[in-house]
Design a protein that fits this description.
single chain
């Protein structure tokens, strides 16, 4: 989400620098997107940079949606696991919490294995 915010701020800065006003629209709504698609610049390099910003913003938004969907899926899986463990009369509340915490820690560990940190 930080990458998406950074890209959006850079795009807004470019628009303000070149005198493009977008006050009429709520930022990043469909109306705002339509407005952005009508903006043209005099110099081809500015047009290329603006289109790259729009593309990067779209890719960042899609990445946020994919991550959100994966997290919701994990939440549903853990909720289902909680209910199935709670149905067993032998397990008390503390043991169920520990079991769910272990699964969540495993999920986070697996994410950490696949992510490379920038230095």
């Amino acid at each position: 989400m930080a990458a998406r915010l950074r890209i959006r701020l850079q795009m807004k800065a470019m628009l303000l620098k070149h005198g493009c006003d977008y006050v009429r629209f709520r930022s990043w709504s469909q109306a705002h997107e339509r407005h952005l698609s009508t903006i043209r610049f005099d110099h081809p390099a500015q047009e290329i940079a603006f289109n790259e910003y729009r593309l990067a913003c779209k890719e960042a938004s899609e990445r946020v949606e994919r991550i959100t969907a994966a997290l919701r899926k994990a939440q549903l899986r853990l909720s289902k696991r909680w209910r199935s463990l709670a149905m067993r009369r032998k397990l008390n509340h503390d043991k169920i919490c520990i079991a769910i915490a272990r699964e969540l820690a495993g999920f986070i560990w697996d994410i950490g294995r696949h992510v490379t940190l920038r230095t």
